[in-house]
Amino acid sequence: MRPLTFTLRERPDQRLDLSPLVPHGLVRKTAREIERIDLQTTRYRITVGDVFRLRMGDVEQIRIQGACDRLDYIGRKMKGGELLIEGDVGIQAGRLMGGGRLTVLGNAGPWAASGMKGGVLEIRGTAGDRLGGPLVGEIAGMRGGVATVRGSAGERAGDRMRRGTIIIEGDAGPYVGSRMIAGTLIVRGRSGPLPGFLLKRGTIVLGDSSSTLLPTFIDCGQYELVAMRWLAGLMEPYSKAAARLLRRPLTRFAGDMAVLGKGEILVGSRN
Amino acid sequence: MPLTVRGVRIDDTFAEAFGMRATAVIITADNARWAHQAALSMTGFATSVIGCGCEAGIDCELTARQTPDGRPGVRVLLFAVSTAELQRQLQARVAQCVLTSPGSACYAGIEGEEALRLGNALRYFGDGWQISKRFGAKHFWRIPVMDGEFVCEATTGLTKKAVGGGNLLIIGRTVQTTRAAAEAAAAAIGNVPNVVAPFPGGVVRSGSKVGSKYKGVPASTNDAYCPTLRGAVQTALDPDAGCVLEIVVDGLTSDAVASAMRAGIAAIVRLGPKRGATRISAGNYGGKLGPHHYHLRELLP
Predict the structure, then answer these.
(1) What CATH topology corresponds to B3-16+161-299?
(2) How far apart are CA B195 and CA B181, in angstroms?
(3) Does B217 or A66 have the greater pLDDT score?
(4) Which of A140, A225, B27, B82 could form a disulfide with A162 if both were Cys (CB 3.0 to 4.6 A apart)?
(5) How would CATH label the architecture of B20-159?
(6) B-chain residue closest to A117, CA distance
(7) What pLDDT shows up at residue B2?
(8) Is the Cβ–Cβ distance between B180 and B170 less than 8 Å?
């Protein structure tokens, strides 16, 4: 069965809230009902029919064509099915996602995968700041699932992450994995200064050894860890690059000793 | 009326087996030798539930491609009469024999209807330095040890469909020929997946009957099959029988036990009566105790 497709007519005048366009939100809705769904974020009402050309299809496979960075909250609280975005997305893509697969072929704005609880989020381009991070006032960021960024990510990726896995195949900005509570974060490329700032528990794996580490991370020596080998096997379907990195000898830095100190930064040796 | 296949007499009888609880774990190590060593230690003193608490053995060797961490491994099966005893035995044996073995790691070897605690029970050895890792449905523990880390999956599966006590009585003219037949059968059963023969080398020479003339002894020698007592007791042996060896088979399923017995009979028959056994029988309790009956005539090659 062909996918349910939304094609953006033109770049909208205001930022839009696309959170209703998830598989479980569109089940058993007619084309007319879908076209009447409100998407505005200002006083001026905009419905699906105003900005998208709709082609009905399988609600479990939704495709949004011609997407742009004004489309916010895509895949919010998504429970299952597939959502494919052809283009860029705005803020909070995949926020509080609990299941299914969200693929963004372009770039994502800040807070992508924020508070994500399950499922798979793939961003083929770059991700903005605070990938997987919490919103203001929230205690924890990402809590489950796998978020993969093929490009680079902005500042504080994995901030306050509690569980789950973030893979950044490109570079990461400053303070990657800041205040992490637990979970696994992998940066294949370079990372900005001070990764793992106030890391409590959890694992940060860095593919490049040139970033400046805090003095509160203690060098524990270089190892080929069995756990990372196993993790590599599990990550292979999501990121071959990350799996390769995990199979390399890794230098373990325990920290952040400024807080609990039961986390680790594993730095890949140069091959 | 016994059947004869290639000169080997096969009794028209059946093996009587019992339902058991079972689990499986995969042990890996830096090389096959150390994986095997950990598995051997873990399955030591696990021949019979009567005296050992569980029955255990090595199911198969695994190549690096077949294991979760890409290192050589061994799959071990454990059988017990209750879930509580199986949990107790699993925990004690992994803690004392696998955790202690250099370079080892331990993973779930079966997806069962219920879970048994594996790393979830052993993690406390880490004294607060243990690290939990989850990826999807997989959960494992990293416990710091003196050679690095002991990686252990949080839980493994439990099956309530396991069967213990499938058996073959192998009767021959001499100790040498009977042992040759038993070795051939044990080797054939070793190639059948999801079964173990828990006795030494897969073979037991001290088959037992229920009860004893002495008070408080639950089992005693199976005098009907002792060749040196032929004539002194009501024997089950023919005049040409000089030795009896038994193979006991435990399997994760009833079909696996039947396959193992079939493979064992085929191997004995292939060896023939001159170099191997002259007769194959099986042990039962009249069919009233165990729900699983394996009739030898249905398992002929």
Answers:
(1) Alpha-Beta Plaits (3.30.70)
(2) 19
(3) A66
(4) A140
(5) 2-Layer Sandwich (3.30)
(6) B136
(7) 67
(8) no
User: What is the Cα–Cα distance from B126 to B141, expressed in whole angstroms?
Assistant: 10
What's the confidence (pLDDT) of residue A270? 57
Work out whether strand A52-55 and strand A3-8 pair parallel, antiparallel, or are unpaired.
antiparallel
CB contact under 8 A, B142 and A165: no
Chain B residue with minimal CA distance to A143?
Answer: B134
Same fold for the pair B3-16+161-299 and B20-159: yes
What would the two tokens of residue B111 be? Answer: 């997806």
Q: Is B40 exposed, middle or buried (0-12, 13-18, 19+ CB in 10 A)?
A: middle
Instruction: Tell me the C-alpha distance between A173 and A215, whole Å.
Output: 19
d(CA A184, CA A199): 12
What is the maximum span of chain B, computed from C-alpha positions, in angstroms?
67
Domain segments of chain B as ranges? 3-16+161-299, 20-159
Provide the pLDDT for residue B290: 87
pLDDT string in tens for chain A (271-residue length) = 899 999 999 999 999 999 999 999 999 999 999 999 999 999 999 999 999 999 999 999 999 999 999 999 999 999 999 999 999 999 999 999 999 999 999 999 999 999 999 999 999 999 999 999 999 999 999 999 999 999 999 999 999 999 999 999 999 999 999 999 999 999 999 999 999 999 999 999 999 988 889 999 999 999 999 999 999 999 999 999 999 999 999 999 998 999 999 999 999 975 5
User: What is the phi/psi pair of residue B74, to 5°?
Assistant: -140, 140
| Predicted complex ipTM | 0.91
The phi and psi torsions of B186 (rounded to 5 degrees) equal -65, -40
Report how far residue A271's alpha carbon sits from residue B275's, in angstroms, rounded to the nearest whole number: 59
Cα(first)–Cα(last) distance of chain A, in Å? 46
Residues of chain A positioned with their CB less than 8 A from the CB of B131: 201, 203, 227, 262, 264
pTM of the model: 0.92
Mutation to test the A interface, candidates B101, B131, B140, B152, most A Cβ within 10 Å: B131
Q: What is the DSSP string of chain A?
A: -PEEEEEE-S--SS-EE-TT-SHHHHTT--HHHHHT-B-BSSSS--BHHHHEEEE--EEEEEEEEEE-TTEESTTTT--SSEEEEEE---S-TTTT--SSEEEESS---TTTTTT--SSEEEESS-B-SSTTPPPTT-S---EEEEEEESS-B-TTTTTT--EEEEEESS-B-TTTTTT--S-EEEESS-B-SSTTTT--S-EEEES-TTSPPPTTSEEEEEE--HHHHHHHHHHTTT-HHHHHHHTS-EEEEEE-TTTT--EEEEEEPP-
Run of H or E residues at B78: strand B73-80
Among B107, B133, B149, whose Cβ lies nearest the Cβ of A231? B133
